[in-house]
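Table 4 source record.
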Amino acid sequence: MIRHLGRGMIGAFALCAVLAGPVSARADTITVFAAASLKTALDQIADQFTKDTGDDLRLSLAGSSVLARQIQLGAPADVFISANPGWMDLLQAEGLLYDETRFDMIANQLVVIAPVDNPTPVDLSKPGAVAERLTDGPLAMGLVSAVPAGIYGKEAMESLGHWAEVAPKVAQTDNVRAALALVSAGEVPLGVVYASDVRADPDVVVVAEVPDTAHSPILYAAAALQGGNRAVASEFLDYLRRPNSQSILTRQGFLPLGE
Protein backbone atom coordinates (compact mmCIF):
# COMPACT_ATOMS: atom_id res chain seq x y z
CA MET A 1 0.00 0.00 0.00
CA ILE A 2 1.31 3.42 -0.95
CA ARG A 3 1.35 5.90 1.89
CA HIS A 4 1.33 9.62 1.28
CA LEU A 5 3.63 11.77 3.40
CA GLY A 6 2.51 15.06 4.84
CA ARG A 7 3.97 18.26 3.44
CA GLY A 8 5.96 18.90 6.63
CA MET A 9 7.51 15.45 6.60
CA ILE A 10 8.42 15.79 2.95
CA GLY A 11 10.15 19.06 3.77
CA ALA A 12 12.07 17.42 6.59
CA PHE A 13 13.26 14.60 4.32
CA ALA A 14 14.26 17.12 1.67
CA LEU A 15 16.30 19.06 4.21
CA CYS A 16 18.03 15.85 5.36
CA ALA A 17 18.78 14.95 1.76
CA VAL A 18 20.36 18.35 1.15
CA LEU A 19 22.45 18.11 4.31
CA ALA A 20 23.55 14.55 3.57
CA GLY A 21 24.11 15.18 -0.13
CA PRO A 22 27.81 16.05 -0.11
CA VAL A 23 28.69 13.03 2.09
CA SER A 24 26.78 10.44 0.08
CA ALA A 25 27.93 11.95 -3.22
CA ARG A 26 31.55 11.80 -2.02
CA ALA A 27 31.52 8.18 -0.94
CA ASP A 28 32.73 5.62 -3.50
CA THR A 29 33.88 2.02 -3.37
CA ILE A 30 37.15 0.96 -4.95
CA THR A 31 38.32 -2.63 -5.45
CA VAL A 32 42.07 -3.17 -5.45
CA PHE A 33 43.66 -6.40 -6.66
CA ALA A 34 47.13 -6.54 -5.09
CA ALA A 35 50.06 -8.89 -4.56
CA ALA A 36 49.77 -10.85 -1.30
CA SER A 37 53.14 -9.53 -0.11
CA LEU A 38 51.56 -6.09 0.24
CA LYS A 39 48.93 -7.19 2.76
CA THR A 40 50.26 -5.63 5.96
CA ALA A 41 51.14 -2.30 4.38
CA LEU A 42 47.99 -2.03 2.28
CA ASP A 43 45.76 -2.83 5.24
CA GLN A 44 47.19 0.26 6.94
CA ILE A 45 47.04 2.41 3.82
CA ALA A 46 43.46 1.35 3.11
CA ASP A 47 42.34 2.33 6.60
CA GLN A 48 43.96 5.74 6.29
CA PHE A 49 42.61 6.25 2.75
CA THR A 50 39.07 5.62 3.96
CA LYS A 51 39.50 8.01 6.89
CA ASP A 52 40.90 10.73 4.64
CA THR A 53 38.50 10.40 1.70
CA GLY A 54 35.38 8.62 2.95
CA ASP A 55 35.76 6.05 0.16
CA ASP A 56 35.47 2.36 0.92
CA LEU A 57 38.50 0.37 -0.23
CA ARG A 58 38.18 -3.37 -0.77
CA LEU A 59 41.37 -5.41 -1.04
CA SER A 60 41.68 -8.69 -2.91
CA LEU A 61 45.09 -10.18 -2.17
CA ALA A 62 46.68 -13.15 -3.94
CA GLY A 63 49.62 -14.06 -6.14
CA SER A 64 50.10 -11.52 -8.92
CA SER A 65 49.72 -14.21 -11.56
CA VAL A 66 46.37 -15.37 -10.13
CA LEU A 67 45.05 -11.81 -10.01
CA ALA A 68 46.24 -11.03 -13.54
CA ARG A 69 44.42 -14.08 -14.87
CA GLN A 70 41.26 -13.11 -13.00
CA ILE A 71 41.43 -9.67 -14.59
CA GLN A 72 41.87 -11.27 -18.00
CA LEU A 73 38.70 -13.25 -17.35
CA GLY A 74 36.75 -10.11 -16.52
CA ALA A 75 36.88 -9.99 -12.73
CA PRO A 76 35.63 -6.55 -11.63
CA ALA A 77 38.38 -4.38 -10.14
CA ASP A 78 39.53 -0.78 -10.30
CA VAL A 79 43.26 -1.05 -9.52
CA PHE A 80 45.91 -3.74 -9.96
CA ILE A 81 49.21 -3.77 -8.06
CA SER A 82 51.61 -6.45 -9.26
CA ALA A 83 54.82 -7.63 -7.61
CA ASN A 84 56.28 -8.19 -11.06
CA PRO A 85 56.16 -5.75 -14.00
CA GLY A 86 55.74 -8.72 -16.35
CA TRP A 87 52.15 -9.41 -15.31
CA MET A 88 51.32 -5.73 -15.70
CA ASP A 89 52.97 -5.76 -19.14
CA LEU A 90 50.69 -8.64 -20.13
CA LEU A 91 47.52 -6.79 -19.12
CA GLN A 92 48.73 -3.62 -20.78
CA ALA A 93 49.39 -5.47 -24.05
CA GLU A 94 45.81 -6.73 -23.95
CA GLY A 95 44.41 -3.23 -23.49
CA LEU A 96 43.15 -3.85 -19.96
CA LEU A 97 44.82 -0.84 -18.31
CA TYR A 98 44.47 2.91 -18.44
CA ASP A 99 48.06 3.09 -19.65
CA GLU A 100 48.74 6.64 -18.48
CA THR A 101 47.97 5.70 -14.86
CA ARG A 102 50.67 3.02 -14.63
CA PHE A 103 53.69 3.67 -12.44
CA ASP A 104 56.31 1.81 -10.39
CA MET A 105 55.22 2.14 -6.76
CA ILE A 106 57.93 0.55 -4.57
CA ALA A 107 60.77 -1.99 -4.59
CA ASN A 108 61.70 -5.01 -2.47
CA GLN A 109 64.48 -7.44 -1.62
CA LEU A 110 64.66 -11.23 -1.46
CA VAL A 111 65.79 -13.03 1.68
CA VAL A 112 66.17 -16.63 2.81
CA ILE A 113 64.33 -17.34 6.05
CA ALA A 114 64.23 -20.12 8.63
CA PRO A 115 62.09 -20.84 11.71
CA VAL A 116 63.05 -18.50 14.54
CA ASP A 117 64.47 -21.39 16.60
CA ASN A 118 67.03 -22.22 13.87
CA PRO A 119 68.79 -18.91 13.10
CA THR A 120 72.08 -20.30 11.78
CA PRO A 121 73.11 -18.11 8.81
CA VAL A 122 73.33 -19.54 5.29
CA ASP A 123 76.32 -18.42 3.21
CA LEU A 124 74.90 -18.12 -0.30
CA SER A 125 78.40 -17.75 -1.75
CA LYS A 126 79.27 -21.25 -0.57
CA PRO A 127 78.46 -24.12 -2.95
CA GLY A 128 75.93 -26.52 -1.46
CA ALA A 129 75.06 -24.24 1.48
CA VAL A 130 71.33 -24.17 0.75
CA ALA A 131 71.04 -27.88 0.00
CA GLU A 132 72.81 -28.70 3.27
CA ARG A 133 69.94 -27.12 5.20
CA LEU A 134 67.28 -29.11 3.35
CA THR A 135 67.94 -32.53 4.87
CA ASP A 136 64.80 -32.22 7.02
CA GLY A 137 62.45 -30.79 4.44
CA PRO A 138 62.00 -28.71 1.29
CA LEU A 139 62.66 -25.09 0.40
CA ALA A 140 59.42 -23.08 0.37
CA MET A 141 59.01 -20.72 -2.59
CA GLY A 142 56.22 -19.19 -4.63
CA LEU A 143 55.43 -20.94 -7.90
CA VAL A 144 58.65 -20.51 -9.85
CA SER A 145 56.92 -20.04 -13.20
CA ALA A 146 54.18 -17.67 -12.07
CA VAL A 147 54.47 -16.08 -8.61
CA PRO A 148 56.88 -13.12 -8.74
CA ALA A 149 58.76 -14.10 -5.56
CA GLY A 150 59.18 -17.58 -6.99
CA ILE A 151 60.34 -16.24 -10.35
CA TYR A 152 62.90 -13.96 -8.69
CA GLY A 153 63.89 -16.74 -6.29
CA LYS A 154 64.58 -19.27 -9.01
CA GLU A 155 66.53 -16.67 -10.98
CA ALA A 156 68.65 -15.93 -7.90
CA MET A 157 69.28 -19.57 -7.06
CA GLU A 158 70.37 -20.20 -10.64
CA SER A 159 72.63 -17.15 -10.62
CA LEU A 160 74.21 -18.17 -7.30
CA GLY A 161 74.74 -21.77 -8.40
CA HIS A 162 72.26 -23.48 -6.05
CA TRP A 163 69.31 -24.28 -8.30
CA ALA A 164 70.48 -27.64 -9.68
CA GLU A 165 70.74 -29.03 -6.15
CA VAL A 166 67.63 -27.46 -4.62
CA ALA A 167 65.19 -27.76 -7.54
CA PRO A 168 64.05 -31.30 -6.56
CA LYS A 169 63.53 -30.07 -2.99
CA VAL A 170 61.31 -27.04 -3.64
CA ALA A 171 57.79 -26.78 -2.18
CA GLN A 172 55.97 -24.33 -4.45
CA THR A 173 53.11 -22.22 -3.11
CA ASP A 174 50.35 -20.08 -4.67
CA ASN A 175 51.78 -16.88 -3.20
CA VAL A 176 54.72 -15.71 -1.12
CA ARG A 177 52.73 -15.40 2.11
CA ALA A 178 51.94 -19.13 1.88
CA ALA A 179 55.68 -19.85 1.67
CA LEU A 180 56.18 -17.64 4.70
CA ALA A 181 53.51 -19.56 6.61
CA LEU A 182 55.21 -22.90 5.94
CA VAL A 183 58.46 -21.65 7.45
CA SER A 184 56.69 -19.94 10.33
CA ALA A 185 54.91 -23.19 11.24
CA GLY A 186 58.20 -25.11 11.18
CA GLU A 187 56.99 -27.34 8.35
CA VAL A 188 60.03 -26.54 6.19
CA PRO A 189 63.59 -25.57 7.18
CA LEU A 190 64.01 -22.69 4.70
CA GLY A 191 62.01 -20.37 2.50
CA VAL A 192 62.61 -17.61 -0.02
CA VAL A 193 60.42 -14.56 0.56
CA TYR A 194 60.58 -10.78 0.44
CA ALA A 195 62.26 -8.79 3.19
CA SER A 196 58.91 -7.09 3.78
CA ASP A 197 57.23 -10.43 4.56
CA VAL A 198 59.54 -11.01 7.51
CA ARG A 199 58.13 -7.92 9.24
CA ALA A 200 54.74 -9.62 9.35
CA ASP A 201 55.82 -12.77 11.19
CA PRO A 202 57.84 -12.97 14.43
CA ASP A 203 58.29 -16.73 14.05
CA VAL A 204 60.80 -16.50 11.20
CA VAL A 205 64.33 -15.14 11.00
CA VAL A 206 66.46 -14.00 8.05
CA VAL A 207 69.41 -16.35 7.53
CA ALA A 208 70.63 -14.83 4.26
CA GLU A 209 70.05 -11.70 2.19
CA VAL A 210 69.92 -12.42 -1.53
CA PRO A 211 72.15 -10.04 -3.52
CA ASP A 212 70.03 -7.84 -5.78
CA THR A 213 72.55 -8.50 -8.54
CA ALA A 214 71.41 -12.14 -8.59
CA HIS A 215 67.97 -11.41 -10.03
CA SER A 216 65.93 -8.86 -11.95
CA PRO A 217 64.89 -5.69 -10.08
CA ILE A 218 61.89 -6.33 -7.81
CA LEU A 219 59.44 -3.59 -8.71
CA TYR A 220 55.77 -3.28 -7.78
CA ALA A 221 53.75 -1.76 -10.62
CA ALA A 222 50.32 -0.17 -10.11
CA ALA A 223 47.67 0.94 -12.59
CA ALA A 224 43.96 1.63 -13.01
CA LEU A 225 41.98 -1.01 -14.89
CA GLN A 226 39.72 -0.51 -17.88
CA GLY A 227 36.07 -0.84 -16.94
CA GLY A 228 36.67 0.31 -13.37
CA ASN A 229 35.97 3.62 -11.69
CA ARG A 230 38.80 5.59 -13.23
CA ALA A 231 38.31 8.71 -11.13
CA VAL A 232 38.50 7.06 -7.72
CA ALA A 233 41.18 4.63 -8.96
CA SER A 234 43.35 7.57 -10.01
CA GLU A 235 42.71 9.19 -6.63
CA PHE A 236 43.96 6.05 -4.86
CA LEU A 237 46.99 5.73 -7.12
CA ASP A 238 47.89 9.33 -6.31
CA TYR A 239 47.40 8.48 -2.62
CA LEU A 240 49.94 5.66 -2.93
CA ARG A 241 52.54 8.20 -4.08
CA ARG A 242 52.08 10.42 -1.03
CA PRO A 243 54.83 10.53 1.62
CA ASN A 244 52.56 8.99 4.26
CA SER A 245 51.77 5.94 2.11
CA GLN A 246 55.41 5.56 1.07
CA SER A 247 56.42 5.79 4.73
CA ILE A 248 54.01 2.97 5.62
CA LEU A 249 55.51 0.82 2.88
CA THR A 250 59.11 1.46 3.92
CA ARG A 251 58.31 0.78 7.57
CA GLN A 252 57.08 -2.63 6.43
CA GLY A 253 60.39 -3.42 4.79
CA PHE A 254 59.81 -2.24 1.21
CA LEU A 255 62.48 -0.16 -0.48
CA PRO A 256 62.04 3.29 -2.01
CA LEU A 257 62.73 3.29 -5.73
CA GLY A 258 66.37 3.79 -6.55
CA GLU A 259 67.72 2.11 -3.39
